[in-house]
Amino acid sequence: RNSTNISPIENIKLTEIDAETERQAQTHALLMHPKLWRARELAAQQHQNRSGIATGFEVLNSHLPDRGWPDAALIEMLMPSAGMGELRLLMPAIRSVSHAQARWVAWINPPFIPYAPALEQLGIDTNKILLIHPRTHKDALWALERASRSGNCSLALAWLDESQLKFKDTQRLQIAARQGNTLTCLFRPHSQQASMAELRLQLHTLENGVLKLDILKRRGGWPVHDLSVAIAEQPPQAGRHQMQEQLALWRRIRTQASTEQKPVQLRHESQTQQAQTNPSAPPRPSFLRSTPLH
């Protein structure tokens, strides 16, 4: 019908129909956005070709959207204290990326000294291990964000000061991990604080090699409670005298790091010599060369 014959009322109705059609199209486009997470689509996501870094534990893989740790995201492990089996949970992934990728596995401000012979026994390439001991929380957060964003690290593990960690910090870390294609892991005490981490695990108890945990947050799925993960048995604990020696060494290294104004990379003498002649060792990260920690 000729538009000149349409009454004002009919013209208003047509305008409303056009506006409603446009709103429906915009809503449909939003619902189809690939970054929109839907809990009911977890099973479908697991059958896609996407795959993360295998955890080494099938009971955990079955509840994760990529059937493994996300390879470019921030994850968090919440626990009442260190030594709950959190590193044992990550050991298969650390072993995998240390051999499959020519990138660093960064440990930022670890509470204990990683023992190189024990890591080698677990099959980890210790030439890819990079230890960074910042002096302050600000330095630690800076180092973690740069390590995650740089693209030089396949995995970045960090122990930060919980009292100073803010929600906006987790936002920056999540973005940095995506940009650098890095699995970034924060170890935190039990906390009700909101976080932008893509995956959050709450660890409870470790008894007889079985770790009890909850999945508090995962992409595309509801929380999962009361999971039991059979991790490998812990190695025998060091004697009291040996533990005191390790703690004394840790204090000396911390003191040295606080006076040198640069990150400290721990290596055995044999490993240092090996790295000088080993072409498989990754180059020193540019994010450590560009700006000193101060």
Describe the structure.
By secondary structure, this protein is of the alpha/beta class. It is built from ten helices and eight strands. Strands 3-2-4-5-1-6-7-8 form an eight-stranded mixed sheet, with helices on both faces. Helix 6 (137-150) runs parallel beside helix 7.
Overview in brief:
The chain is α/β, with parallel strands linked by helices and 294 residues long. The chain has helices spanning 8-31, 42-46, 58-61, 86-100, 116-121, 137-150, 167-180, 240-260, 269-277, 286-290; strands at 73-78, 104-108, 129-132, 153-158, 183-188, 199-207, 210-217, 224-230.
Overall form: elongated
List the uncertain runs. 234-240, 261-277, 286-294
Main β sheet profile: 8 strands, mixed
Strand content: 15-25%
Whole-angstrom Rg: 24 Å
How far do the termini sit from each other? 75 Å
Succession of helices and strands = HHHEHEHEHEHEEEEHHH
Helix content: 25-40%
Features:
8 strands, alpha/beta, about 15% strand, about 290 residues, elongated, eight-stranded mixed sheet
Task: Give the arrangement of secondary structure elements.
Blueprint: H1 8-31, H2 42-46, H3 58-61, E1 73-78, H4 86-100, E2 104-108, H5 116-121, E3 129-132, H6 137-150, E4 153-158, H7 167-180, E5 183-188, E6 199-207, E7 210-217, E8 224-230, H8 240-260, H9 269-277, H10 286-290
Parallel strand pairs: 1-5, 1-6, 2-3, 2-4, 4-5
Antiparallel strand pairs: 6-7, 7-8
